[in-house]
Design a protein that fits this description.
This protein has 908 residues and is of the alpha/beta class. The chain has two domains: 529 residues, Rossmann fold (3-Layer(aba) Sandwich); 343 residues, Glycogen Phosphorylase B (Rossmann fold), CATH 3.40.50. The chain contains 36 helices and 25 strands. Strands 1, 4, 7, 8, 11, 12, 13, 14, 18 and 19 form a ten-stranded mixed beta sheet that branches. A six-stranded parallel beta sheet has the order 22-21-20-23-24-25, sandwiched between helices. Strands 15-17-16 form a three-stranded antiparallel beta sheet. The two termini are 48 Å apart. The N terminus is likely disordered. Bound molecules: pyridoxal-5'-phosphate. Pyridoxal-5'-phosphate (PLP) binds next to helix 9, helix 28 and helix 29. Keywords: Allosteric enzyme, Carbohydrate metabolism, Cytoplasm, Glycosyltransferase, Pyridoxal phosphate, Transferase. It comes from Henningerozyma blattae (strain ATCC 34711 / CBS 6284 / DSM 70876 / NBRC 10599 / NRRL Y-10934 / UCD 77-7). It catalyses: [(1->4)-alpha-D-glucosyl](n) + phosphate = [(1->4)-alpha-D-glucosyl](n-1) + alpha-D-glucose 1-phosphate.
């Protein structure tokens, strides 16, 4: 069997040109080379094919009529339907296909431009891309200003989205209904995957040449159902009805091997010399491409997701012995590799199939990147000048080892020369300091699947430890601490984060506090060895196209109108322009409009909740303006402290009941505890017992509170099931206040905090992650901070371990109800584990330390919202005006300048 990586069954890669003779002809058409240059090259091409090419015209639709023609063509040919049996889903498909046609034309031009200009490119490797829906995003990002249909006067223009909405209306369809037909591309767990999606949007918008690389999971993150208050996971088979946004490249098949053994020439014992890995199991990687459009540019980048397929090789020995069924079965095992996204967020589950996924993806991706580089015929030393590979967390760390293997085993480059190339190419983003999330692989599992890679890791470690030993002689303790191999029981493990650091030239954290923490805690030894300059910060951001323009059209219309940017919406490309909104904070008319937008979005959320609740309203829709909508939506995790939130809700409920018991009137209770809806949403990892119990508690509290006739609608609790990007787009614009209340030092950055602020919601939060920088940008008078600081966490945890945990009266009152069955009549002890974790097991997440200040801050929130609404609205306006820093466009500029050293490649 041929060693992996030496050949592909088909060496054609879309976006590249196989025949150099084609280059000039394409170049002229697509990049506008000088005519004389073209003439010289054109003459090398036979007249016949030249004429054919010149006649050939692929064009984008550029007005309503052309869109409609394209739409009808797709209905009748692509879908083989007629307009008479075209339902909403078919219309969604035809609209998407029409838009994709335009995108693909620009995609081709972008890729041709890259081939001819050959600048340095970025490769963003992420096991997760949480893209959400594509259609509305494509409509919004599409280059604006079309000529309107019918009597369009000269100089008139209309935004693409509006034009298509009108066209669809004429054809008998409602755009919003079509948008709802699209399933979410939910190939991610939460923040990390959504960050990758926002970065792709910003890189296209900023004309940065990038290819994203990931896996095309058949099943994305599971769909969450709530049954009797419990989370039930159901498979997310998002491809049931096909996917009009992807382009299958069936003609490209990259072989990837696993297991087997290492073969070396007779007498050669050095693992540093070229060695041949003879793989045991072999599968094929087939790419699917997703065009990623930028906003108001014709740059369209590529997101390439690999799918695993069986090889066409067949075990004839088995076949001939009559074991046909088993020989087919083995083939089918290949498909398991990309079947399923692992549903853990910030938690390592060291499963063999996960490692297989990772290597499959890294091998296919590196093969693609190396192949593309080799076409340029540049010397290998120029590889880091042409290629920047960003590792999104440690999941793609095998790519470091795979490139080293390609260079020494296949390209026969000397070890140190190869390692210099590797190091100049990679950079690594760390996403957490939590021990349980740090990736480690047992040596035996790893060595069996990837025997040659294990040798290479040992050699990397050997040279690395040699350098360390030179700088810090005889410090055995230091050497064992910093080693890539952890001498742990029951077995030694590879520390993937350490490998990523050693293999990269830059390591970044994702918010200032987090980037400081990694330097002083988990990577402190590496700072001691390398110095601090290898470790930098790039604070996360979000794309304002999706998280303002797309999810909150009313607010973005109000903003663009106010800034006089109705047509071009320049602020969406330069978010700090929003500071101009500060001129309007005292404008009462503007305040009124601002509040009306929030109210409309709250109505939209109210209806969404009604839909989820079988058509019954939980929220009183008549009182929305004086109801505080308090939201916590994110993955359910003890460190994110949804338990503290729900305990706070219970405290409020008990206090209200007490007032009633002591004879207070409804109005008197309302004065102290004005109308509030607590909204929760988020998925728990399927095997995470405590997170699932927290979901059950929230639903159990909702059950009691919502049907309490005394309380009426002064307090409602809602758990929104199946939180995902599309749900976020409805929930976030509706929030008055949202909760980002992680134990200080545990949330690396958070990105939903930024989304809420961008939509005019205020924040209650701990001094953690990007909350700190948000405070700096919007002003501390516009955010509700509380709780212990990260520098005190260690000591507090230590105290809990050795002394009794101090439970305040407030917390005591609430915890008591948990164990007497107020919220679990059938099983009184159901919520005991939550009580235990705080009272008995050392309260690792410091709920007891922060609870009273949390309650006090909630009280301040109520007071501000209900007793001085104008002040509240001003805070909201100030927040949006100063959220500009958190655009992912700013992140991408920082990555491009300080890590990748790449320049934009602007069209024209
Ligand atoms: C933004 C986002 C997240 C991240 O939320 P955090 O509060 O930062 O953890 C998770 N899930 C979805 C669907 C998101 O859009």
């Amino acid at each position: 069997m041929a060693p992996q990586g030496t050949s592909t069954t088909n060496d054609m890669i879309a976006g590249d040109l196989t025949d150099p003779a084609h280059l000039p002809r394409l170049t002229r058409r697509l990049t506008g080379f000088l005519p004389q240059e073209i003439k010289a090259i054109d003459s090398t091409i036979p007249l016949q094919s030249r004429n054919l090419w010149h006649k050939h015209q692929v064009t984008k639709f550029e007005n309503a009529e052309e869109f409609e023609t394209r739409f009808i063509n797709h209905v009748e040919t692509t879908l083989a339907r007629s307009l008479y049996n075209c339902d909403d889903f078919a219309a969604y498909e035809a609209t998407s296909s029409s838009l994709k046609d335009n995108l693909v034309i620009d995609w081709n031009k972008t890729q041709q431009r890259l081939t001819t200009k050959d600048p340095k490119r970025v490769y963003y490797m992420s096991l997760e891309f949480l893209m959400g829906k594509a259609l509305d995003n494509a409509l919004i990002n599409m280059k604006i200003s079309f000529i309107p249909k019918n009597n369009g006067k000269n100089g008139d223009s209309i935004k693409a989205r509006q034009m298509i909405k009108n066209s669809l209306q004429d054809l008998g369809f409602n755009l919003e209904d079509l948008l709802n037909q699209e399933p979410d591309a939910a190939l991610g767990n939460g923040g990390l995957g959504r960050l990758a999606a926002c970065f792709m949007d910003s890189m296209s918008t900023k004309d940065i040449p990038v290819w994203g690389y990931g896996l095309r999971y058949k099943y994305g993150i599971f769909a969450q159902k709530i049954i009797d208050g419990y989370q039930i996971e159901t498979p997310d088979y998002w491809l049931t009805k096909g996917n009009p946004w992807e382009i299958a490249r069936n003609e490209i098949q990259v072989p990837v091997t696993f297991y087997g053994y290492v073969d070396r020439k007779d007498g050669d014992t050095s693992t540093l010399n070229p060695s041949q890995w003879v793989g045991g199991e072999r599968v094929l990687a087939v790419p699917f491409d997703f065009p990623v459009p930028g906003f108001n540019t014709t740059t369209v980048n590529n997101l390439r997701l690999w799918e695993a397929r069986p090889t066409t090789e067949f075990d004839f020995a088995k076949f001939n012995s009559g074991d046909y069924r088993n020989s087919v079965k083995e083939q089918q095992r290949a498909e398991a590799i990309t079947a399923c996204l692992y549903p853990n967020d910030n938690f390592l589950q060291g499963k063999e199939l996960r490692l297989k996924q990772q290597y499959f993806w890294c091998a296919a991706t590196l093969h693609d990147i190396v192949r593309r580089f080799k076409k340029t015929q540049r010397p290998w030393s120029e590889f880091p000048d042409q290629v920047a590979i960003q590792l999104n967390d440690t999941h793609p760390t095998l790519a470091v080892v795979e490139l080293q293997r390609i260079l020494i085993d296949l390209e026969k480059i000397e070890w140190h020369e190869a390692w210099k190339i590797v190091n100049g190419t990679f950079s690594y983003t760390n996403h957490t300091v939590m021990q349980e999330a740090l990736e480690k692989w047992p040596i035996s599992l790893f060595g069996r699947m990837l025997p040659r890679h294990l040798e290479i890791i040992y050699d990397i470690n050997w040279f690395f430890l040699n350098q360390v030993e030179k700088k810090f002689p005889k410090d055995v303790d230091f050497l064992s601490r910093i080693s890539l191999i952890e001498e742990s029981s029951p077995e030694r493990q590879i520390r993937m984060a350490y490998l990523a650091i050693v293999g990269s030239h830059k390591v970044n954290g994702v918010a200032e506090l987090h980037s400081e923490l990694i330097k002083t805690t988990i990577f402190a030894d590496f700072v001691k060895f390398y110095g601090a300059s290898k470790f930098i910060n790039v604070t996360n951001g979000i794309t304002p196209r999706r998280w303002l323009r797309q999810c909150n059209p009313e607010l973005s219309d109000l903003i663009s109108g106010t800034l006089n940017e109705d047509v071009k919406e320049e602020y969406l490309l330069d978010l700090p322009r929003l500071t101009k909104l500060q001129d309007f904070v005292d404008d009462e008319n503007f305040q009124r409009k601002w509040n009306q937008v929030k109210l409309n979005n709250k109505k939209r959320l109210g209806n969404f909740i009604k839909q989820q609740n079988n058509g019954e309203h939980i929220i009183n829709m008549d009182h929305l303006n004086d109801t505080l909508i308090d939201v916590q939506v994110k993955r359910i995790h003890e460190y994110k402290r949804q338990q503290m939130n729900i305990l706070g809700v219970i405290h409020r409920y008990l206090s209200m009941k007490n007032m009633f018991k002591q004879g207070a009137s409804f109005e008197e209770v309302e004065k102290v505890y004005p109308r509030k809806v607590s909204v929760f949403g988020g998925k728990s990892a399927p095997g995470y017992f405590m997170a699932k119990l927290i979901i059950k508690l929230i639903n159990a509290v909702a059950e009691v509170v919502n049907r309490d006739s005394e309380i009426q609608d002064l307090l409602k609790v809602v758990f929104i099931s199946n939180y995902n990007v599309s749900a976020a787009e409805i929930i976030i614009p509706a929030s008055d206040i949202s909760e980002h209340i992680s134990t200080a030092g545990t949330e690396a950055s958070g990105t939903s905090n930024m989304k809420f602020v961008m939509n005019g919601g205020l924040i209650i939060g701990t001094v953690d992650g990007a909350n700190i920088e948000i405070t700096r940008e919007i002003g501390e008078e516009n955010i509700f901070l509380f709780g212990n600081l990260s520098e005190n966490v260690q000591e507090l945890r230590y105290d809990h371990q050795f002394h009794k945990t101090n439970i305040s009266d407030n917390l005591q009152m609430v915890l008591h109800e948990l164990v007497i069955g107020t919220f679990s009549e059938e099983n009184t002890s159901e919520f005991k584990p939550i009580w235990d974790s705080i009272v008995q097991h050392g309260d690792y997440y410091l709920v007891s330390d922060d609870f009273d200040s949390y309650l006090a801050t909630q009280e301040l929130v109520d007071k501000t919202f209900h007793s001085n609404r104008t002040e509240w609205i001003k805070k909201s306006i100030y927040s949006v005006a100063n959220v500009g820093f958190f655009s992912s466009d700013r992140c991408i500029e920082e990555y491009a300048g300080t890590i990748w050293n790449v320049e934009p490649l602007t069209p024209e």
